[in-house]
Amino acid sequence: STTPLTLLGLGGMGTALARAWLAAGHPLTVWNRTAAKAEPLAAEGARVAASAAEAVAAAGLVVVCLLDDASVGEALAPAELTGKDIVNLTTGTPAQARERAHWARRRGARFLDGGIMAVPPMIGTPQAGGYIFYSGDHALFEQHRETLAIPAGTRYVGTDAGHAALHDVALLSAMTGMFAGITHAFALMRPEREVKPTEFAGMVTEWLRAMAAMTEAMAWQLESGDYTEGVTSNLAMMSAGNATLEATAEEQGVKGELLAPFMASMRERVALGHGDEGLAGLVDGLRGGSPQR
Ligand code: NDP
């Protein structure tokens, strides 16, 4: 169960992955473009390869965690990939993952793409709740399941190599919108010296946790196709309420730019006569389509 493997890329994430496999006793060969980053890992038992091609030659299982898809193509260009199992944990778009899968197969390799839902301190710490989405070659995933489960939990989401990246980016997108709201909220409270940010943070976290339940309500509406079903806060009401959010931002001297596009979507949907819908109604609007009912 201690499969030897190769890891290309020793940035913040790659280094965390390397440490997790070394700690679990896996023979590990590493390579990084800037060789100095491999030195601490050599001291911890990793074999350091002089080139990416040499690193790839050292093991059947090759994990890649580089900056972006272009760096993956560049690093693997001179390597012999025939018979290799490539697991690409580099963040990219779904189309890049599918393209990379075809590219790897043409070169005689099996390919699995991954999207890491964790930050480096969560790697090798199962109780931190981090995990990695995987998609692509199912036989590869099954064969290396135990090895892949060492750094973080595994969630296989299908044979389409682009599916892990799609899940990854969808969750990152949800997070981005959430951070926009949090940033705006801190800015509103900024001049209120008597409310410490650390105190306000607790209120934000508690509120967002309660409101996250809306996600399930939206999902039920999307599945039923009836976006008015069980709606307690409809778009007409929320859109009218947005005027208060905008006026308060102005009073507090805060730019409305982070929230404005979302509010515009709501206004547009109401103007089209869908004010009785919940937030689910915005989903079709965003795709430029009419509601599917
Ligand atoms: P870093 O910026 O710390 O490291 C980037 C790595 O890519 C380095 O090893 C760098 O080598 C290498 N690299 C960049 N360009 C090239 C190239 N043209 N050829 C060869 N190697 C190259 O990034 P992370 O380690 O944090 O992230 C790696 C991947 O993991 C990214 O795709 C990221 O999105 C993903 N990820 C990261 C998370 C995080 O919180 N850090 C969370 C989830 C996913 P060099 O040292 O020589 O510059």
TrEMBL record:
<dbReference type="InterPro" id="IPR036291">
    <property type="entry name" value="NAD(P)-bd_dom_sf"/>
</dbReference>
<comment type="similarity">
    <text>Belongs to the HIBADH-related family.</text>
</comment>
<dbReference type="Pfam" id="PF21761">
    <property type="entry name" value="RedAm-like_C"/>
</dbReference>
<feature type="domain" description="NADPH-dependent reductive aminase-like C-terminal">
    <location>
        <begin position="160"/>
        <end position="287"/>
    </location>
</feature>
<dbReference type="InterPro" id="IPR015815">
    <property type="entry name" value="HIBADH-related"/>
</dbReference>
<dbReference type="InterPro" id="IPR051265">
    <property type="entry name" value="HIBADH-related_NP60_sf"/>
</dbReference>
<feature type="domain" description="6-phosphogluconate dehydrogenase NADP-binding">
    <location>
        <begin position="6"/>
        <end position="149"/>
    </location>
</feature>
<dbReference type="Pfam" id="PF03446">
    <property type="entry name" value="NAD_binding_2"/>
</dbReference>
<dbReference type="InterPro" id="IPR013328">
    <property type="entry name" value="6PGD_dom2"/>
</dbReference>
<keyword id="KW-0560">Oxidoreductase</keyword>
<dbReference type="InterPro" id="IPR006115">
    <property type="entry name" value="6PGDH_NADP-bd"/>
</dbReference>
<dbReference type="InterPro" id="IPR048666">
    <property type="entry name" value="RedAm-like_C"/>
</dbReference>
<protein>
    <submittedName>
        <fullName>NAD(P)-dependent oxidoreductase</fullName>
    </submittedName>
</protein>
